[in-house]
Amino acid sequence: MIFRLKTSKKTMDCFTEIGQKTGLKPFALAKLAIAIALNSNFDSLSFRTDTNGLDLNRQTITGEYDAMYKCLIEQHCGNHLCEDDYFPTYVKAYIDHGSILLHNQFRYGNDFILNLAGLEGDSI
Which CATH class for the 4-109 domain? Predict the structure, then answer.
C-alpha cells in the first residue's frame, strides 16, 4: 500500500501562490481541490500530469475520512477502485485537476473564501 503521492508542478505552483496569499497549507488546499474536482465534470481516466511537485502524505490528505474520500471518488467515477488505483493514482488526478479549478477561482473570483463556502452573493 502506498502512502505518499507527488503532485504535478502546476499543482505545486497553484498551491504556493494561493498559500502565500491566504495562509492555507498544501494539505488543506488538497482537500479543497478534491472537493472542487468532485463537483466538476471531470474524466479522471484521461487526466495525465507529471510528478514534479509536492510530496503529500495520505494521512494528511484524507486522514480518518479516507473511506469517505474513496467512496466519493468511486461514486464520481462510476466504478469500484482497488486500493492501488485509488491512492495515489485517482487521488493525485483529483488533486491535480482540482488545483487548476481552485486556482482559477482564486484568481478570478470576487471573494475566494466566500466563494469556497458557497456564500458568494449571500448576506452573512
Answer: mainly alpha
CA 43/CA 97 separation, integer angstroms:
10
- Strand positions, DSSP E, the chain: 4-6, 55-57
pLDDT at 122 exceeding the cut of 70:
no
* Domain parsing of the chain, residue ranges: 4-109
What digits encode the pLDDT tens for the residues 59-73? Answer: 999 999 999 999 999
- d(CA 107, CA 34) in angstroms, rounded, equals 18
Give residue 120's pLDDT band: very low, low, confident or very high (50, 70, 90): low
**Residue 123 above 70 pLDDT?**
no
Q: Which residue has the cell 482564486?
A: 106
For 118, left (φ over 0), alpha (ψ -120 to 50), or beta? left
Phi, psi dihedral angles at 36 (to 5 degrees): -70, -40
Which residues are 56's β-sheet partners?
A: 5
3-state class of 28 per DSSP?
A: helix
Instruction: State yes or no: cis peptide before 26, omega within 30 of 0.
Output: no
- Give the Cα separation of 38 and 40 in Å (integer): 6
